[in-house]
Amino acid sequence: MNLEILNLILLSALLGETTFLTVRSLRAMREKARGEKIYIDTSTLMDGRVLGVAQSGIITDDVVILSSVLREMQKLADGPDSNKRARARAGLDVASELERTVEVNAYVENDASSGEVDELLLTMAKKNRAAIMTNDFNLNKRATAEGVRVMNVNDLALAMRSEFQPGEKLTVKVTDKGNNRKQGVGYLPDGTMVVIENARERIGQEIEIELVRYNQTPAGKMMFARAANVSKPRQTRQPRRSNRRSR
Asked: For residue range 62-95, what is the model confidence (pLDDT) as tens digits?
């Protein structure tokens, strides 16, 4: 009888240890899957473009909005400056939309700090080895100097901007025909496809073009252009027929 009890005790202990190890393993996997943290500041929320970036799915880390950031925006939303008031209210809406965005894990983290928000962001980022997302120039410089990783929506926008702008002239090789009857297709040095009017008959040639319009599509960016210095064919007047009968 005593042996049976001892076996039951040993079995219970073994099951308990196995359960503990399983729970700890699952917790570690969940923490690993969550990724690192990005603390987002007031300037980024009030800018608003972060919502589109998050919805694109390119942010894989957790996006953390400190309650101090929300309180700072609430103060601005109730303030006397009409411009800041409107932007702060829009920023509060962006924060709410971020929490509902399924493409990113965004949540509000409560804190009881009554100090400066920038100082708190730096402290939390250092403590958790996290990044800060900000459009604030001074905070960007200080965080970088103190070894904190910085993400900036303005830098992302500049990186995504087309290298070539409408009105520029450059030489492009026409490599294929376009969808319309007179169009040719070439590629800019950065790989952007350019559709060129009146260039179908110039396939295989390098021609000078003038960029007209930039178009961003879900499939990528595309430019429309026209062949530069193309003289229109002269129209020769046909002799008018005489209706006079010969006698």
From this structure: 999 999 999 999 999 999 988 889 999 999 999 9
Closest CA to 165 of 232, 219, 217, 225: 225
Q: What is the CATH number of the domain that holds 221?
A: 2.40.50.140
Q: Which residues pair with 10 in a beta bridge?
A: none
Per the DSSP assignment, residues forming a β-bridge with 195 are 185, 224
Q: Distance of CA 221 to CAs 165, 196, 226, Å?
A: 12, 15, 17
- Work out how many domains the chain is built from and give that number: 2
Place of tokens 């570690």: 28
Mean local confidence (pLDDT), 96-113? 90
Cβ atoms of 64 and 14 closer than 8 Å: no
Task: Say whether both 43 and 152 belong to one domain.
Answer: yes
Q: What is the rounded distance in angstroms from the CA atom of residue 22 to the CA atom of residue 28? A: 10
Q: Residue 189 and residue 12: Cα distance in Å, rounded?
A: 70
Do 154 and 173 lie in one domain? The reply is: no
Rounded CA separation 217/22 (Å): 47
Residue 150 is assigned to a structural domain of this protein: yes
Say whether 120 sits in a helix, a strand or coil: helix
Among the listed residues 202, 225, 196, 221, the one whose alpha carbon sits nearest the alpha carbon of residue 213: 225
**Domain carrying residue 205:** 169-227
154 & 198 share domain:
no
Per-residue pLDDT of 218-243, as tens digits, reads 656 788 998 876 544 444 444 445 45
pTM across the whole model:
0.61
Q: Are strands 62-66 and 106-109 parallel, antiparallel or unpaired?
A: parallel
